[in-house]
Design a protein that fits this description.
Ubiquitin-like (UB roll); single chain; alpha+beta; 5 strands; 2 helices
Length: 101
């Protein structure tokens, strides 16, 4: 039909839901490590990041308890410890601590 016009496609990339942004952007140091809390465990690009930063950035995603103890490869660490590539970071809440201060 001579009077028909084709509809122009409007393609644009919209960002997904807010929150963490690109979790795979990682720090410049690069590398990945395994982070776990309870039933959640993921290999993430967090090498070179401090434990406290990882705790804040992934608290919702991995349901990290703010009072949990950080453990890297079996050794208790504080929030200023920097995670290296291929390490295992676990956030652990000791049994029997429910309601303890």
């Amino acid at each position: 039909m001579p009077n028909e016009r084709k509809r122009q496609r409007r393609e644009e990339t919209l960002p997904g839901p807010g929150g963490l942004g690109d979790v795979f952007a990682g720090p410049e140091a690069g590398g990945s490590a395994t982070v776990c809390h309870g039933p959640y465990s993921e290999r993430l690009p967090v090498a070179g990041m401090a434990v406290g930063e990882i705790r804040r950035r992934f608290s919702d995603r991995l349901d990290i308890d703010p009072g949990s103890q950080a453990v890297i490869d079996g050794n208790e660490v504080d929030d200023n410890t920097v995670l290296q590539s291929d390490q295992l970071l676990a956030f652990i809440r000791q049994a029997g601590e429910k309601g303890a201060e």
